[in-house]
Amino acid sequence: MMNLSEKIIVVVGGASGIGRASAALCRERGATVIIADQAVPAEWEAELYCKVDVTDEGSVAELFKHIEQAYDRLDALIHTASILKGGYLKADGLSLETFRQVLDVNMIGTFLCSKYGLVPLRKSSRGVMILLSSLAATMVSTSLAYGASKGGVSALAVTLMNQLAGEGIRVNVVAPGSIDTPMKRGAITADPSVEKSTIALEDRIAAANLGTPEGVAKILAWLVSDDADYVRGVITTR
Predict the structure, then answer these.
(1) CA atoms within 13 A on the CB side of 192
(2) Which of 56, 89, 92, 201 is the most exposed place for a label (fewest CB within 10 A)?
(3) pTM (global) more than 0.90
(4) Active-site annotation, residues
């Protein structure tokens, strides 16, 4: 098992889903993990935690300023914060407000964390930035807004990868498939093509053959380690 004991890692969106599983695994492997999210679970009162609104530039700037002051550097940024809204709506039924809200969280939020995370990442000898896209970026998504936002994240990551290569900062974009998270369960529940009275939620989830957040977390924990130093480009998972 790889040792992350000397790593300072922030997981943005670390309170649930893939982010939560990744924060737990990196911590288990010895890293100092800062969990950044909008709400702190009660059982995490003793954890290293920072409240952040990824759509607010001042909030994001303050998060990374705090990390730099507290730890002097940042070895890895894992960005998992995202929302899914407007599922199953066609373009003429999707409001601009909903479309913008999804892009604000998923794409603008990723950009802001990438921008302000660079300052402490530059102080690490092997800085790593892991941004989460989705297979929804290149395959069919239930939401126009979600698919568009994740396509933007992939393009952002590839461009950052090229810009930062000369600075020794490695950028990877990970595109998970169907993973059993609260967000995915919500999308399955909202599917209008399924007769809710005859097919139980757990049966629909079983039929979807979802992967686990822990499975993706193993990939993310490996990517922030020095063992993944030669890995480049987009990584897809089940």
Answers:
(1) 6
(2) 92
(3) yes
(4) 146
